[in-house]
## 1
Amino acid sequence: MLDAINSALDKKELPELEAGTMCYMLSKQGYLGDQAGHFHPHLMFWAERTKPKSWGAGMPGFPMIGGEEIPGRLTVFMIPVGKWSDGTPDSHDQR
């Protein structure tokens, strides 16, 4: 799948990211895979390749997580929030 996405990006078959590209990940049914399982409700932001620390990701006292979404192309940032889409609190919320 990653090869197909990279090929489409190389051929300009996918649109470029617009400023402010984001996603709400607030469903209790969200599943990140067998290793991660279910995750906290969170917001996701994408940026052209950048260092996560330049946005504060991983810095002490700042709840943002950052990493490469598509290596060498896109960086993703995740900010956990306290409630699911139905308004119930995140049972894993440590705040």
Note: The radius of gyration is 15 Å.
## 2
Amino acid sequence: MIITRRDFLKTSATGVAGTFLASKLMAADAVAAKPGIRISARHFSGSFADAKKAGMEGVEIGVGGAADKLNITDPAARQKYKDMIKDTGIVVSSLSMDLMNGHPTGTDPMAPAWLAQTVEAAGDLGAAGILLPFFGKAHLLDEKKEFKKEAAAGLVSRLKEIAPAAKKAGVVIGVECTLSAKQFLDLLDRVGSDSIGAYYDTGNSTGAGLDVPGDIRALKGRLAMIHFKDGGSYLGEGKVKMEPVAEALKAIDYKGWIVLETSCPSKNTVADCKRNGDYIRKLMGI
């Protein structure tokens, strides 16, 4: 669970992903006085000012494409983000390693270096988490929806290696894949670190036929972050049943980031993001 700034200063980590999210969030003056759920979006990595106009509190940014050194390692690029944070009060909620869909974490020889680079960058930028995705070539499940043994074993090994650095940086690495809660828990238990959690996606999981509210409840204390997404629809108007999702998040007392990975039906990113953000606040009572 998330703890208050005062409690955090008095206590050590409690062994759940939300604690580390809180430690990084509360380190930023812009959000130190705002405990509870916060809303971020993937749309605004180049303009934190637009994110602010849309009512966001954070932005999820990408780390760049495959290279010996990821773009996020560039001091000039990081300084640009730091300047935007200072100017707007909008923080970096998380870093997204989209390149890993084409370079499976469990088997690609560059994966350990990229993970280390991203953890270091997340710590420097004050980000709470890292999105580590497993889709396409990197999907963890086979056609029978069972774990690919080699991919899963390699992933567990490499997550164990990076977990101490993530813990030191106060960052939670969130695994994103269309896994059931049972499969997530199996994977996370094998890693055995509270610096590794589940990055759950409501849209992807609904599309995969999973029990989204049930999964959220089962993942209590293990959610790194959560994506709100519903195809080409505004939240609340598509296939994802948002009321049960909200009830499940309230039931587990979730206090982390909700990150919008939503579409823009009107083609006005700021307006559509604000609409979805306002919907979430009403839905969640925040």
Note: DSSP finds eleven helices and eight strands in the chain.
## 3
Amino acid sequence: MNNKPSKKDMEVIEDNSFSYDGYQVVRGEFFAHIYEPSFTFSKNKISVNTACVKKLPDTDYVQILVNRKEKKLAIRPCSESDKDSFRWSTASTKKRSPKQITCKVFYAKILSLMGWSPDYRYKLLGKLIKSGDELLFIFDLNTPEIFRCSSSTDGKTQSSRMPVYPEEWKNQFGLPVEEHHKSLQINIFDGYAVFGIQDTQKESEDTALEQTNITAANSVH
């Protein structure tokens, strides 16, 4: 059976007058994306989806990087011995799956940075990119899918299946073509800072030390 397209199927109408002016690239958040990488914040916990783990099948430990200025988050593969590394998947060799990780300090810092509410679940879509010899995931904190959380009669937290989008998305499909193109041109590590989500004790100690210094300074005056 010959599946090769015929000349009629391949017919292309040439139109040099076409322009992208007025077109918007429809946001990926408006489509189903089960097989695309995602990162979720919910009730003091974070997690990636199975797609992330499958795209990096040899990666057991990662670091999280945050760009406060650009409001972007990156996941970078690393070794267990690297500072601020953590296991992002189960240790099973047969069927690896993502781990849901409790991280109250990191969760609170992101909510504060983005002005998010703890009453919602925030899901970010991401892309696997290559920078030099490194592979890493990039997620945009500015464009989350937002789901309202509620408590059921048995006390368990449930999340709505219907996403809530920012008000400014109401009358648009997405970014204009030129602006969309510029948004993809990112300098991967410029401005990123490694954040150890398990290093809560150190942060508490730093906070206590800062408060002690403030108290001491006030007593001098």
Note: The radius of gyration is 22 Å.
## 4
Amino acid sequence: MKTTDKHPRNRTAPLLSTVLLLAVSAAAGADNAATKIVRGTYYQNPLSFGTTRDPDPPKYARNASELGIDSLLNVKWLDVGLDSRFRYEYREGDLRRPMDSLDQPLLHRTRAYIGIKDVLDPFRFAFEMQDSRRENSQFVRDNRDVNQFAIIRLYGELYFKSLLGHDPIGNSRPLSVRFGIHNFDFLDRRLLANNQWRNTANTFKGFYASLGQESNNWQLDLLAVQPLTRQKYDWDTPVAQQWVYGAIGHLRSWSEVITLEPFYLALNQSAYAGVTDYTVHSPGLRVYGVVGSTGLDYDFSFIYQTGTNGTRKVDAYAGTFEVGYTLASQPWKPRLSLFYGYASGDHNPNDNKDNRFQRFFGFGRAWSANDYITFQNVSTPTARIELKPHQKLRLDLNYSAYWLASATDVFSVGNVIQVQDKTGASGNFLGNEYDIRARYTWDAKTDITIGYAYFQSGGYVQKQLHRDHTNFAYFELSRRFF
């Protein structure tokens, strides 16, 4: 039966309030947990592949006092950044294109950042602009590659440094409330990410609050934002009638051994102009850590989804599992890892249940170097080797196999085109991917990346997209100016 709720956005409030109360209660109790800290922070960086979040301010930004300019030595209230990235791509048979082709696009991305802090506290301010362009391609420009002179960060912030006291090792526990335009990474970046690999960024407009900071033993992030639609040649605009809500907890009292990140996300699309009413609630838990000096690390997550899609009930789930082992005593410090990821697909489009997992706004690079796979209707194991032959050089070699979780549901190819065989006669095996990447730090401000990925098509792709294999090679040069 179709819902008669004229304000579907309000259905999020009761569950969100419950999650907030539970998260705050758990966080408060974390102060009394056993603590073994060997640094001035409780934060443990995950070793799982591709899950390190972009810092805030962004990693290309520098404090003005650190630029080596005498007149700025005392200007500690200002952060500035400017960087440029160029990437050449060779794409043969790209599955995301409507025809078998050879394309060699040139991608350019330039970013600039200004942040003001301390001097006007509690008021702070940040601004970031990104200019994204693509040349030398035979295909029509799209907003994955082109977003000229886009504001990707513009917010005012109220920042109270020690309003919530201090944690057991003395770090202040601030309260921060921001309003404006944001780009951010959360959790393992598979649900919410600014998408560093893609030439354009995911951005949101609205409220973002944080109780605590990354160095604390507990922290709670709160979101109420609208996704922005990337306009190629105009200012980005909010997606009509769509909101994302979130409460993300971080419990770090156990330091390296275990970090718990319980979370709740919700996406609400109100019905308008032919768009179906859609509401999904996504409670989940991420657990990661490093097991002492054993060399073992792990990263697990599980998400359940419920809600409504028009008259259908949402009933979906997803999970990821990664275990790694680092041979620290070896010269190249190899890390060997096994990963498995699963996201449910819709079993039967004609019943009253929607089993397709909602991927939110995550990044796809960790799923596929070719950018073919999204966190939706997929089952994939991956084996990986990461090496560091030199202080300036990092290598990773990967093998992945891909199946559809449901052979009758949609295959969303890189979130660009959609393919579906409702009969299931094409099977569910998508194919195998082999890829290698080398990252070289030329100097303190310059990085070079070279990569290659080969995709061997499975039966589904051969029948639906008529491709036997694809080749993808790229060269990337990134330069920071401060």
Note: The first helix runs from residue 12 to 30.
